[in-house]
Design goal:
This protein has helices at 6-29, 36-50, 55-60, 120-135, 143-156, and strands at residues 53-54, 67-70, 73-75, 90-99, 102-111, 160-161, 166-169, 176-182, 198-202, 205-206, 212-214, 221-223, 229-230, 232-237, 244-245. By secondary structure, the chain is an alpha+beta fold. The strands form three sheets. Strands 1, 2, 4, 5, 7, 8, 9, 14 and 15 form a nine-stranded antiparallel beta sheet that branches. Strands 3-12-11 form a three-stranded antiparallel beta sheet, with no helix packed on it. The protein has a three-stranded antiparallel beta sheet with strand order 6-10-13. A hairpin with a 6-residue loop joins strand 11 (212-214) and strand 12. Helix 1 runs antiparallel to helix 2 (36-50) and helix 4 packs antiparallel against helix 5 (143-156). The chain is globular.
């Protein structure tokens, strides 16, 4: 969507705060020994207290309220009583929701407890790349140039990017134009970021894979060559200068 009046910015801020606060609290709540369904229900309760509705559930009939992916699962992991969290797991939580007709999206990967499997370096790379990407976005900048920054920064750190997952426009629905804000430069993509537009910018930084493939459950995605992936995501408003980070309350780039 494009923000054209104060009430729209207010609506987007409200929806974004709901998903950001929910994500932050879910990360804080996650403990070894807990199952992912329990963690999902905790997040669902927070969203509900805000009056927000789960976007994947609403839009796609996703069998859960939030996507929770663990270890080799890259994204769209289905919350389950059978999936027990363990010390050192690489966890990704993606929270998106609708509130009063406005939609917002955010996500983060983190290491649960002690970093016994050395995932923190990948998590930190994903955060740094998201920070750098956002700081370079303003009206008129080529979408492909931001993808180029992301891939270059990933390569610099010895990582790859997932080529079939990307960020997207958001606001009045979960996925809007511009779609496919990729983590690499497509030289045929001549689109530019537009001032006042709302976009969800996300990283997909991986150890070995370059594509994500769907498992038989019809949702969960893993890497075509295995390995691990970290994702961080903010919903932002594009301006002439520094973007407005609507989901800042999740604090994913603060540490």
């Amino acid at each position: 969507m494009s923000i054209s009046k104060e009430s729209e910015l207010f609506g987007m801020r409200k929806a974004s705060h709901a998903v950001a606060y929910t994500l932050k609290e879910m990360i804080r709540y996650a403990q070894p020994g807990m199952n992912t369904k329990e963690l999902d229900e905790y997040g669902a309760k927070i969203l509900s207290d805000f009056g927000a509705k789960s976007a994947p559930h609403l839009t796609y009939g996703f069998p859960g309220w939030n996507c929770i992916s663990v270890d080799n699962e890259f994204c769209h992991g289905i919350p389950s009583e059978k999936r027990i969290l363990k010390e050192g797991d690489l966890i990704n939580i993606d929270v998106s929701a609708e509130l009063d007709g406005f939609w917002a999206d955010n996500g983060a990967s983190f290491v649960l407890g002690k970093d016994i499997h050395q995932h923190q370096k990948l998590v930190d790379a994903s955060k740094e790349i998201l920070r750098k990407a956002i700081s370079n976005i303003k009206g008129g900048v080529r979408i492909g140039d931001i993808g180029h920054i992301m891939e270059t920064e990933a390569k610099k750190r010895g990582y790859k990017v997932i080529k079939n997952l990307g960020g997207h426009g958001i606001g009045r629905s979960l996925h809007e134009q511009p779609d496919e804000i990729m983590n690499y430069k497509n030289r045929f993509d001549q689109r530019r970021f537009k001032k006042n537009s709302v976009v969800a910018i996300e990283t997909f930084i991986s150890t070995t894979s370059t594509y994500a493939t769907e498992l038989n459950d019809g949702w969960t995605m893993v890497g075509n060559k295995g390995g691990y992936m970290a994702q961080h995501e903010h919903t932002i408003v594009v301006t002439d200068g520094k973007p407005i980070i609507l989901t800042e309350a999740n604090e994913i780039l603060d540490n």
